[in-house]
Amino acid sequence: MPELPEVENVVRALRQDLQGARFGRVLRSRRQIMHGDRRPPQALLRNKVVREVSRVGKRIEIRLSGAMRMYVHLGMTGQLAVVPAGRDLAPHTHLCIDLAGRAAQLRFRDVRRFGGIWLDDGRDGRRGKPLPAAGEDILAVGLPRFRQVMKHPRQIKALLLDQHLLAGMGNIYCDEVLFRCGIHPLRKASTLDHDDVKRLHQCIRRVLRAAIRAGGSSVRSYRGSRDERGGYQRNHQAYGRQGRPCRRCGTRLLRLLAGGRGTVICPRCQRAPK
């Protein structure tokens, strides 16, 4: 699933390609992909101008003229990109929006269909499934606020995965950050001392920013808005490396369940809680 670094790279590309664009014809091939307003997307989106493209956590937010908001969640395999209008439609392309005056389209593709698009102009009458949670963006959270969140008695990985609190991290970057900090994923956040919390906060920012610079992690199907692969997977120390030797101490990496997700740890570098 695309996490904060991957979504940030998508947003940066879309910001260049969409800023100031006017939407034209809207073609939707799968009704269930869109949620929010009950009216047809053609009536809601046609002639709307893109004012801003931004991100909170893993969620893409496109602000349009007329108080309309378009939220996009990529799910596990979603792709949102501006492409030449004449390009053949890739399988599982569910939405195409012409960009007026340009030979280009904004297209949304989602093979596994866990993603979606939400339209909201502030009126009542919502339909479809609710918009996935997006709490405080984890890269925007300062150390004082982070310390408050870490007082929670939940296991640390489950806490970091909870998008209602700190939005942006998923399985990949939780594994990477906790390994680099030497923190076991089953340890309760409230047991971290003052220095542990500071080190964890710094490590999260360092890992996520490095992953953004590398274009994200392409471990399965992820590609950016310009069909490019990320490169941060070459720097993974834990995620996807179960059974291999730890790059620090040589101990065989193990896989366990934490926060409801398969998790890779080094049993020597990340001591289990008592």
Describe, in plain words, how this protein is organized in 3D.
The chain is an alpha+beta fold. It folds into 2 domains: 4-120, MutM-like, N-terminal (N-terminal domain of MutM-like DNA repair proteins, Alpha-Beta Barrel); 136-265, Helicase, Ruva Protein, domain 3, CATH 1.10.8. Helices cover 23% and strands 24% of the residues. The chain is built from 6 helices and 13 strands. Strands 2-9-5-4-3 form a 5-stranded mixed sheet, covered by helices on one side. A 4-stranded antiparallel sheet has the order 1-7-8-6. A two-stranded parallel ribbon has the order 10-11. Strand 7 and strand 8 (104-110) form a beta hairpin. Helix 1 crosses helix 6 (194-213) and helix 5 packs across helix 6 (194-213). The longest helix is centred in the C-terminal third of the chain and has 20 residues, at 194-213. It is elongated, with a radius of gyration of 20 Å. The relative contact order is 0.15.
Concise overview:
By secondary structure, the protein is of the alpha+beta class. It has helices spanning 4-18, 41-45, 143-149, 156-161, 171-181, 194-213, and strands spanning 23-28, 34-36, 50-56, 59-64, 69-73, 78-84, 93-99, 104-110, 116-120, 136-137, 166-167, 254-258, 261-265. It has two domains: 4-120, MutM-like, N-terminal (N-terminal domain of MutM-like DNA repair proteins, Alpha-Beta Barrel), CATH 3.20.190.10; 136-265, Helicase, Ruva Protein, domain 3, CATH 1.10.8.
